[in-house]
Amino acid sequence: MASNKLTDYELKRLENIHRNEQLIASLKLQSMATQLSASTKRPRAETKSYKVGPEKQPKTQDPTVIRRSLRTRGLPPDAKGLGDNVGTESLRPPEASPRNLGPLSMRDVHNGVSSDRALIETILGIEMKPQMGGSVKCEFGRFEGENSSGAVKGIGGLIKKEENGVESDLKLESLTLNQENIARVVPGNIMNMRFFPTSNMRMVVVGNKAGNVGFWNIDSGQGEESGIYMYHPHSGPISGISIQQHCMSKIFTSCYDGFIRLMDVEKEVFDLVYSSDETIYSLSQQSNDPKCLYFAEGCGGISIWDERTGNISAQWSPHDDRINSIDFNSDNSNIITTSSTDGTASIWDLRSIDADKFKSLKTVGHKRAVHSAYFSPSGRSLVTTSIDNTVGIANGVNFEDISMIYHDNVISRWIPKFKAIWGWDDAYVFIGNKNKGVDVISPLQRRTIFTLQSPYLSAIPCRLAAHPFKVGMLAGATGGGQVYVWTLNGERM
User: Fold this and answer.
1) CA 253 → CA 213, 214, 240, 273, distances in Å?
2) For a surface tag, which of 116, 150, 326, 416 has the fewest beta carbons within 10 Å of its beta carbon?
3) Helix (H, G, I), strand (E, B) or coil at 312
4) Which pLDDT does position 222 carry in this prediction?
């Protein structure tokens, strides 16, 4: 009776189910499935090739975080958020050391085996000698004005003025690297490098990511560690070094630890000039004002510290993100340029700081972070370096003529980012490359025209400096703490 109530579809369905059950039984699929399921549940053999970590303990503490000032805890400021800024996430030491707010004796922070007395006497002695006349623009060169023919006379000889730039008599192929002109000055990444601004001495000072400040007196002669001295006055990456031509016994250094220190060679101490809970990213001074320090502090801010009052005299925030470089125009010290991780490099007039609407005179925009912006030796051009793989050149009366020149600037995050610098005139820009060389860019031709290479160059020269009084003397610093010095025709030191 029940079967009479089923539809044709239901009858067909029951017939198919019965046929499938008979087929499965004939193939013994059910028993095979049972065996397979049992085998997958067997315990694994004790043959693990990795180490088992300790069992996690249950949380017993309240996860609420109570914010406290890093200064009250005796710790250096945090360095989070540096990823795209400089690509140096590992720059801070893994263990924070207490902040020493007092002066540090040079003897106590000297890491060398031999005495540093020779260095002290050399620096003090160099101040007693007369310096070469003319203006000096830090490590980037100088100009001595124009002659009657309209050519600009630079320290490298006569350079011809063109409509959109200059041509130099410097022969790039004459720059040579000798094996004797190489030294490891500090361990680890060199973040900053400067030549001493004097015609009477060839000495390089560098700062690395661990807070070491190293000196290499190139004129000291040959021999292992000859003329090399190292101090450890900071607990983090050195973000700036400033040396004034007329006061070379006082060397300012800034650090990511929020400290600015003055190495006073005459007193043989590293004095504490300024301390902050914020990170200090760059440092600079006007060439005619050794009493004021300009430094980038925190997220997009610039502070001016006046030695005469011992206080901050002015502060403003020209950028939306950290400032990576500050540079003064050699032709007008009231004009400065800044580069920022916000993707811009700007030119400012310091006389307008107190204005209601403080606007930049010119802004050069990039697609990604800008890690440097420097005026040319004449002050008439500007070079910028960005990790968007371009080097920007701005010139003209109001820097309105902007060219973007391709250059591969993206390197490992463990290596300091490239920063293009000017040579000894407005004709050439120098920047390291990833193939262990130094590219030379012509602003006039708007392209890379030459590459300095050497079999002795075993690492990427990520930081460069040109001696302000020695034409053709170019230093390159690496992530391994070495310094390579090119000279004209391979001149030996």
Assistant:
1) 9, 12, 6, 10
2) 150
3) strand
4) 57
The structural domains of the chain, ordered by start, are 104-170+197-417 (2.130.10.10)
> What is 237-291 written as a DSSP string?
-EEEEEEETTEEEEEEEEETTSEEEEEETTTTEEEEEEE-SS-EEEEEEETTEEE
Three-class secondary structure assignment of 108-160: HHECCCCCCHHHHHHHHHHCCCCCCCCCCCCCCCCEEEECCCCCEEECCEEEE
Q: Which two tokens stand for residue 52?
A: 């088992």
Closest CA to 256 of 69, 482, 80: 80
What is the rounded average pLDDT for all residues in the chain? 81
β-bridge mates for residue 406, sequence order? 390
Contact 274, 260 (CB under 8 A): yes
DSSP string, 52-117: PPPPPPPP-S--PPPP--TTTTT-PPP-TT-HHHHS-TT-S-SSPPP---S-EEHHHHB--SS-SH
Question: What is the rounded distance in angstroms from the CA atom of residue 311 to the CA atom of residue 294?
Answer: 12
Which amino acid belongs to residue 407?
A: H
Q: CA 313, 315, 318, 324: dihedral to nearest 10 degrees?
A: 80
Between 135 and 457, the higher pLDDT residue: 457
Residue range 231-287, pLDDT digits in tens: 999 999 999 999 988 889 999 999 999 999 999 999 999 999 999 999 999 999 998
Runs of H (alpha helix) within 297-386: none
Backbone angles phi, psi at 486, to 5 degrees: -85, 145
If DSSP codes are grouped into helix, strand and coil, which group holds residue 5? helix
CA–CA distance, 462 with 416 (Å, rounded to integer) = 6
Beta bridge partners of 296: 282, 302
**Exposure of 412 by Cβ count < 10 A (0-12 exposed, 13-18 middle, 19+ buried)?**
exposed
Rounded distance, CA 401 to CA 249, Å? Answer: 40
Tell me the two tokens of residue 346. Answer: 């700007």
In angstroms, rounded to a whole number, what is the distance separating the alpha carbons of residues 110 and 268? 11
Picking from 491, 474, 492, the residue whose alpha carbon sits closest to that of residue 483 is 474
**pLDDT of 56 strictly over 70:** no
Determine the pLDDT at residue 7: 84
In tens, the pLDDT along 80-111 reads: 333 444 344 344 443 444 566 789 999 999 99
> Are 208 and 189 spatial neighbours (Cβ–Cβ below 8 Å)?
yes
Spatial CB neighbours of 17, under 8 Å, sequence gap ≥ 6: none
Query: In whole angstroms, what separates CA 73 from the centre of its chain?
Result: 28
**Are 403 and 443 contacting, i.e. CB atoms less than 8 angstroms apart?**
yes
